[in-house]
Structures are given as C-alpha cells and as structure tokens.
User: Fold this.
Amino acid sequence: MSHNIKILPGATVCEDCTLEGDITIGGGTVIHPRVTIIAEGGPIIIAEYCIIEEYSTIIHKKNEQPENPPKPLFIGAHNVFEVGCRLESLCGHIGESNVFECKSFVGTDVKIGSGCVIGAACSLTTPQTLPDNTVIWGSEHNNREALEKQPSQLLQLDFLGKVMPNYHRLRKSNVHKRQMSRQSQEPAKS
Assistant:
C-alpha cells in the first residue's frame, strides 16, 4: 500500500500514530498519539478542525466490487473522535460536528449525517443512515434527536495546538500554498 500523507498547515499530527494510504489532514485538525488511520479502500480526506484522540481507529474499507477510481471517504469539519472509538466505512461521507464517544463503533454500512452523537460503547453494525442531529446512547442503542447543536471545539483545539508540541513529537506540514506560476509573475506583454 503506497503512503501519500498530506498534512495541511495548522494541523497538529503526532509522530506516534499510524497513517497508511492516501490521507489528507485539514488545517486545525489535531491527531493524538496512538491513532490509526488506514485508507485501504481509497483516499481519506479529513476536513479542518477535527479532533482524533488516542487509540481511535478510522479505516476506509475495501469494497468487494472495487471502483475505478476509488471513492474517497470524506470526514467533515469539527468532528470529534474520542478515545478508543472505531469507524470502519465503505461510505463516501461523514457529516460535520459529530461526536464519536469513547469506545464507540461505527460499522461499514452506516452513514452519518451532521451534528450526531454516537454514545460511549455504542456499536452500530446494521446498515442504516443517521439523519442530522441524531443521538445514540445506552446499552439498548436508543436514539433521539439532539435538543441543541454540538458545542464548538475551537477552544480545545487551540489549547491542544499549543500544548501538544511541548510533550509529543509532531509530523510537519507538507502541503504549502501553491507558489505563483512563473507566467503570472512575468509582466504582461502589450
């Protein structure tokens, strides 16, 4: 499996994590140590301002009928993957502002909207689509609509971005703003 890891400026990615395949990490995203992200079924694109905590696993699974070119797994902005959660997906999109709580599991045929909460230790394995603002909780995997929007994680992201470099080795950003092309730098001829 080839490794094509793109880390955008502003992302905080610990060296002590496993990144395999074609992965793009958006600016402002924080990836803690011991995270595993594997893009075996196609590229994974993680948007900006996501938090992926220790021992979380995100896998873009191979489809039984391979597509050419493979569809990417797009993970929207402001998602929080708490300690030990696991996401295995064949789907092409995870919405924005979701919280995957500790030890939660989301299987391959589950589609997640935006503003959803998957409760601690909840396991979603049957094919389903969670509409926006769905909360899953409890041993019975009860669900309801969220009463309010998920709070912003920007203060936590700012704190982590400042503190993590003091305690962990970080991977450097490797994608920079495109340089102006040589033609656009030359004055126009009349």
In short: The longest strand covers residues 36-46. Residues 179-190 have pLDDT under 50 and may be disordered. The helical segments are 154-167, 182-185. Residues 19 and 37 are 5 Å apart (CA to CA).
